[in-house]
Every structure is written in C-alpha cells, then in structure tokens.
Amino acid sequence: VIAVVLILALAMPVSAAATVTPAGGGDAIAADDFGTGAWTTLTAIVITEGAAGDIAVGDFVLTIPSGFEFNTGSAPDVVVTGADLAATTPAAVTATTITVTVTSASTAAGTLTIGGTTPIQVSPTQGTPLSSGNIQMTSGTIDSVDGTTNFGTLTEVHGAATKFVIIDPTDGTVDAAITVTVQLQDQYGNIVTSGGHENDDVTLNADRSATGDGLVDIISGVGTKDISDQVAETVNLTLDDTETTGFNVDSTQDVIFAHGVATKFVIIDPTDGTVDAAIT
To answer: Which residue, 35, 124, 170, 219, is most buried by CB atoms nearer than 10 A?
Structure first.
C-alpha cells in the first residue's frame, strides 16, 4: 500500500508559482514630458511559468497607475515560449490598460514576454503633484499572480529648474524672527532637488525696517532666511538674481509683523499748552 501511495504521489504534477520580471526604465519620468508628446520606453515584462498552464487561457489586463498613460501608438508585441502556449500579438493597448489575449495554455512551462521588440511606452498625465505607482494586473488568471504583483514601477520626477519662489510665510510678531523659505522649482512648481542647479543661490530682499535678508543658501532646492522687525508693519519680500543663475525671480510675498506681548505703560510726551485749555 505504501508503495502504491508513493507511486501516485510521484505521478502527481508539482505546482510551481509563476514569476513576473517587471518592466524597467520607469524610475525617472520627467514632469517636463507632460503634454509634450515625449514618451519613456520601458524594458519588457516577462512572465515565467513555474509549471505548465500557469498562464490561463483568456484575457489578462495590466493597468497603469494614476498619473500616467500608455502610448496607444506603440502596441507592444507578445512573444511566447513553451509547448502549446499561444497569445495574440500585438497586445491591445489603451491609455490606461494593456490587454493580452492567451489563446492556448502551455503543456510545458514557458514564458510570455510583453514589449520585447515593440516596447511599452509611458508618459505623465500631469506636471504636479508628482505621481508614482506600479503597473498591476486588474483582470485575468496567472498562478500566484494577483492585483498586488508589480509589473513595473513608474516614478515621475521634477523637471528642469526654471524659477525661484518665495513660499508665503506665516505672519508673526515683533517678538520673534519669521522664517522665510525660498524654493528652486520647475515649471510646474515641483522642488528641484537634482540636476546640477539644486544648490544655486538667490538673494532675498526685505523692505521697511526689516533685517535678516540677503543671500539665501539653497541646498537641494530649498533655503531659508530669518527676518526680524522691531516695528509692527507689513514687510514686502522680493528676489534678486545676484548669482546670475538665469532663473526667474519674479516671485513676491509680504509678511506682517504685529505688535508683541504687552510689557509696559508709557506716557507719550504731550504737546505743551496754556492755562486757557486742557492738555490731552
């Protein structure tokens, strides 16, 4: 009996999970590509069966994360290996999905490659906020693959630096300095943290009685200055491109210094007068 059970166990097929090699090349998609017709080309997605039939007959759908779109003019090719595995090529592509139609399951473990020759191409659908996410399967059946499986990570990054911007400061009082933040931004308002200009400096000007303005030390696209004023007043803030970066410096803001905490009573020197009238 033991021998029969052992023989049957050895004769049963061994289940092995399919694995996905996600598309690469999508980790630095520039915000500047938005609306320009520029596309980022991804490397191929490869699904490797662990056992025959892991990729089921029918459609499986890959969906792009929010903030990105597929190039509908570049329908990726589908190539298979493994006995009897077959799929329609090219895949059907819309702005948000790629649909692969499997017409025959494998009888020996194989592979299915999407975009090996005609590549998958993507582009951002907004300049800001910066988007990120994974291409995922939202429909279909592949052994051990589900809606959490990563078919390719897409990350949007800031564009080229174009301007310095004063961030609207929080108003305060004459009792403490007010921190003013200046950012180096791209055309869409994203902070520029790399690219060779992320440490370029700019001069902050504060008018009226304010002190503490001057050259702002920009590090990774951000710098600050502590502005003080002993007079309760509104201070206007402007920028000056003293370091000749060539970036726009039109940004302006104002900050209000209110009176401080009460500390004393003061008699204001009155105007002298005569005995003919009261003096206020």
So the answer is: 124
